[in-house]
């Protein structure tokens, strides 16, 4: 029995996929807001499909010239055609979505090769289940930071559904040739429900030896099961990335995969399901929460898409490359073609270093660098703080601020990306350190040419930044709000405790290693025997001019008891003052004080 994935079927599939992607390109582009709203996913998928369609699938290989009656030739032709399709797709992959699509074809090529060696005449459903299982695993490895609710979830669901259908067929015996198409809702679900993608093991460990789909039209039936499961997974509202929740749309790459699976149904002679909807839920406000109830974060968006081809890199070097690219940006993808070549993809603010990272592990070719369009404003105002520590950053986010992690200090490009990522027309930036003012002002000046109004308030510490954020009022006129925030920052006096590492002469006298230094306005103003005493002495000194609120940020090495003891002692000596203690988790100062 000839393989259902013969070169003619593969040609019909890729041609149908290109035709359907051409028809749906505009809509897929429109809903492309994740991971970056560059609105090109439909175009990237179409270009990848066209690259795959350029592969010689029949008539160009030695096996194609062998007599048709030769069983060995019949076994080899589908394997070689699928391998050619996969290689062309990987080499011509565009964008993250194109990388994932290329791995669908690679998964098929590897499954056909394995099946030919394992057992000739493998049933169509088993072949498709194995191909989808392999494709899902390959795509998950290719993408450095997999996210639920995206094309990877759609691919997992399709693989799980076909595996479950094959297992069900093995348990009940072959179906008749005229059997009615099995719907996804009818598939058994080990979790107790009816959705295969929710309860079936997506790794494909289900029994694939059944012959339940080995009938006339078996491939069309199996493909329809996969497409329907993918369509159902795409439409789920829960678990989607925040960017999709805000826009009220499905994942563009996932929508494209459903289109490609529908093309397989049609190529196999089946009837594809209804066109998948691109909308799910309703667009949310800028401060929306995900369907799971989590706060939507605002993530800095890189400004370049970099792709290149690496022929035959060392596998160990690829992991080094992946780590390097992850440090330069996001949407990192390394997709292999099964023959040793790898297509590399990254979104980054530093295109040059991204290419240099490839040069360090091989000889990249086909280098493409494209500027990503800035996202349109989605809200009126935002406040951006540069904060090193996780605890203080969490406080700022909880208060409605956007946070750029400043460890190490950000570059101009990183500040630019963070300002753009707020999605606001008016942005107040708080550098939270004196030495970061220059880079902040430079970035603000550049981004103003893009129509974003940026004001830098020269907050010199995290506590000054938090004080300014605390009085931010979006309902107030923008100029008045900036004045109020600047006044709050200026009115906050800050100090901290540090541990002396060597003998030194300070303004407060000589110190020895291990003694506690109280620092205010950049100078050592006291020396104390321990943290508890030093915190109280420093607070008394800072309260001398007056104050109503003392805020404490505990460092990563400071115990909670230090804050509790300090608050108790200060309330006893200064009952008129409110004391608030938070975990700042900063690594440089065991304790930081702010007086307002």
Automatic annotation (TrEMBL):
<feature type="compositionally biased region" description="Low complexity">
    <location>
        <begin position="188"/>
        <end position="203"/>
    </location>
</feature>
<dbReference type="Pfam" id="PF21645">
    <property type="entry name" value="FakA-like_M"/>
</dbReference>
<dbReference type="Pfam" id="PF13684">
    <property type="entry name" value="FakA-like_C"/>
</dbReference>
<dbReference type="InterPro" id="IPR033470">
    <property type="entry name" value="FakA-like_C"/>
</dbReference>
<feature type="domain" description="DhaL">
    <location>
        <begin position="8"/>
        <end position="266"/>
    </location>
</feature>
<dbReference type="Pfam" id="PF02734">
    <property type="entry name" value="Dak2"/>
</dbReference>
<feature type="region of interest" description="Disordered">
    <location>
        <begin position="173"/>
        <end position="212"/>
    </location>
</feature>
<dbReference type="InterPro" id="IPR050270">
    <property type="entry name" value="DegV_domain_contain"/>
</dbReference>
<dbReference type="InterPro" id="IPR036117">
    <property type="entry name" value="DhaL_dom_sf"/>
</dbReference>
<dbReference type="InterPro" id="IPR004007">
    <property type="entry name" value="DhaL_dom"/>
</dbReference>
<protein>
    <submittedName>
        <fullName>DAK2 domain-containing protein</fullName>
    </submittedName>
</protein>
<dbReference type="InterPro" id="IPR048394">
    <property type="entry name" value="FakA-like_M"/>
</dbReference>
């Amino acid at each position: 029995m000839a393989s259902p994935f013969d070169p003619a079927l593969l040609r019909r599939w890729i041609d149908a996929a290109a035709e359907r992607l051409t028809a749906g390109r505009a809509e897929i582009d429109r809903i492309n807001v994740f991971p970056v709203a560059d609105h090109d996913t439909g175009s990237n998928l179409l270009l990848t499909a066209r690259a795959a369609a350029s592969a010689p699938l029949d008539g160009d290989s030695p096996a194609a010239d062998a007599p048709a009656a030769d069983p060995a030739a019949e076994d080899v032709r589908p394997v070689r055609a699928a391998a050619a399709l996969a290689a062309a797709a990987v080499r011509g992959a565009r964008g993250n979505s194109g990388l994932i699509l290329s791995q669908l074809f690679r998964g098929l090529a590897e499954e056909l090769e394995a099946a030919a060696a394992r057992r000739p005449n493998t049933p169509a459903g088993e072949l498709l289940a194995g191909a989808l299982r392999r494709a899902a695993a390959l795509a998950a490895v290719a993408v450095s930071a997999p996210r639920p609710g995206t094309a990877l979830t759609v691919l997992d669901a399709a693989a799980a559904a076909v595996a479950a259908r094959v297992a069900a067929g093995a348990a009940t015996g072959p179906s008749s040739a005229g059997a009615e198409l099995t719907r996804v809702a009818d598939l058994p679900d080990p979790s107790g429900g009816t959705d295969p993608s929710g309860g079936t093991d997506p790794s494909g460990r289900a029994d694939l030896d059944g012959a339940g789909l080995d009938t006339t039209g078996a491939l069309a039936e199996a493909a329809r099961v996969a497409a329907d499961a993918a369509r159902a997974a795409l439409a789920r509202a829960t678990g989607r990335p925040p960017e999709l929740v805000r826009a009220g749309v499905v994942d563009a790459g996932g929508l494209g995969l459903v289109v490609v699976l529908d093309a397989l149904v049609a190529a196999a002679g089946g009837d594809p399901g209804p066109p998948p909807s691109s909308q799910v839920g309703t667009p949310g406000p800028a401060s929306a929460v995900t369907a799971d109830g989590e706060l939507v974060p605002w993530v800095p968006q890189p400004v370049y898409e970099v792709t290149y081809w690496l022929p035959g890199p060392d596998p160990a070097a690829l992991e080094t490359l992946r780590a390097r690219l992850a440090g330069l940006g996001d949407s990192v993808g390394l997709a292999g073609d099964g023959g040793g070549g790898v297509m590399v993809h990254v979104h980054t603010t530093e295109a040059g270093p991204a290419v240099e990272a490839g040069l360090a592990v091989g000889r990249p070719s086909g280098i493409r660098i494209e500027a990503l369009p800035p996202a349109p404003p989605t809200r009126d105002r935002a406040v951006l703080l540069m904060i090193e520590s996780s605890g203080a950053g969490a406080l700022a986010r909880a208060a409605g601020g956007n946070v750029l992690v400043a460890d190490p200090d950000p570059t101009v490009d990183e500040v630019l990306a963070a300002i753009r990522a707020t999605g606001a027309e008016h942005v107040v930036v708080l550098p939270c350190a004196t030495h970061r003012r220059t880079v902040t002002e430079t970035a603000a000046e550049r981004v103003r040419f893009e129509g974003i109004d940026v004001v830098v308030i020269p907050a010199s510490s995290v506590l000054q930044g938090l004080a300014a954020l605390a009085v931010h009022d979006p309902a107030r006129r923008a100029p008045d709000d900036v004045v109020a925030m600047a006044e709050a920052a200026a009115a906050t006096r800050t100090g901290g405790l540090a541990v002396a590492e060597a003998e030194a002469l300070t303004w407060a006298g000589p110190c020895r290693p291990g003694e506690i230094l109280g620092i205010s306005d950049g100078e050592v103003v006291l020396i104390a025997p321990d943290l508890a005493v030093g915190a109280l002495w420093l607070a008394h000194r800072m309260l001398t001019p007056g104050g109503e609120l003392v805020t404490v940020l505990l460092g990563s090495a400071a115990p909670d008891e230090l804050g509790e003891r300090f608050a108790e002692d200060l309330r006893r000596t200064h009952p008129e003052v409110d004391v608030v203690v938070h975990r700042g988790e900063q690594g440089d100062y065991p304790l930081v004080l702010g007086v307002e």
